Amino acid sequence: MKIDCVGGGPASLYLAILVKLREPAHEVTVHERHAAGAVHGWGVTYWPDLLEELRGHDPESARAIAEHSVSWRGGFAYVGDRTTAHDGDVGHAIGRHRLRTILADRARELGVRLEYGVEIGGREELPDADLVVAGDGAHSRLRTQSAAHFGTRVTTGANRFIWLATTRVFTAFTFAFVETAHGWIWCYAYGYSGEHSTCVVECSEATWTGLGLDRLDHGDALRLLESLFAEMLDGHALLGRTDIESHAQWQAFPTVTNETWSHGNLALIGDAAHTTHYSIGAGTSLALRDAVCLSRTLGSTGPAGLPVALARYERERKQALLSVQSAARHSAQWYENLPRYIGLEPRQMFALLGQRHSPLLPYVPPQLYYHLDQTVGRLPSLRRLKQSLGPRLARALQSRRPPA
What we know:
Elements: E1 2-6, H1 10-22, E2 27-32, E3 43-46, H2 48-57, H3 59-67, E4 70-79, E5 82-95, H4 96-109, E6 113-116, E7 131-134, H5 141-145, H6 147-150, E8 153-156, E9 159-166, E10 173-180, E11 183-191, E12 197-204, H7 205-210, H8 218-228, H9 230-233, E13 238-239, H10 246-249, E14 254-257, E15 262-263, E16 266-268, H11 283-298, H12 306-336, H13 346-354, H14 366-378, H15 380-399
Parallel strand pairs: 1-2, 1-7, 2-6, 4-10, 7-16
Antiparallel strand pairs: 3-5, 4-5, 8-14, 9-12, 9-13, 10-11, 11-12, 15-16
Helix pairs in contact: 1-4, 1-11, 2-3, 3-4, 11-12, 12-15
């Protein structure tokens, strides 16, 4: 088959790699509208189970990803003038530019054609393709062309956020919550290389406008944020994008869902198909897993087998996403309802921060939930029951929402 992937992110690149590994005779092209090497964004997170999965599909690219990643364990939180620490699970991070370079080099090595600086505005520009894969992000132009068919829904969160970097290298997942005259503003940061960390800043709309962050120029906005998070940054600078004005970098997170993921020979992948709130750190992992699933369902099939392959891909990925989408929705709501939790003793607040994915937490008084959770954690039988029922409840609740 002739397969054209639009968008040069991890989903498209990893799909191209796996397709060529399964069927070298496929002709695969990845089209990226930006110039080669131009990547917006800082570091992205993933977890050990993803790395093991990648090793099972392409050991070579997995090895390169592992070599260029950093790891951390647990977390640390500044809450006003109070601090607390938590010894949690291991996590990994890698620079977004580094990840895309690794995948692009591997794809090119396998015979994938990479075209940079090419804007594909519609499927009609790829008339010879047997399969067109829209991996062009949450604001996908290819998907928007047929939005009515896909049943696309975009809902935006109540808070404002911005992706930044800092020259301080954090060795634990670090949170900071700062109270201002206009309400709370917070950030979380994690190292992704030996020189930099990602730093995501979030606040309510009222705090954003009250602090003037909707109006300040790039430099002034960074200086204000550096002063607010001075203790956490410990004298280090914040870094933002310089190609756009700072107020344009602030966003309200768009949650994208689609009733169907394919239209004829056009299939959606990654953020074009679905988005999950950044606070659960799953976007890159989900994109790569979309690629794994789509490459498997395609196998060595030809054009005649596409309808069955694409239907299977959509069915399997939608089912796999149910618990993740539930976790993302409740995580976003936890931050949108921060005043409900911020008055707790830091150790308790941090514990509930770790429980923010729970579908029950919004309906139970925070202190009561904390004590119940501590009790459950001490009793093996109740802990096993919670581990079993939690994901099932999340999937059941998410399945009643509009289709992904």
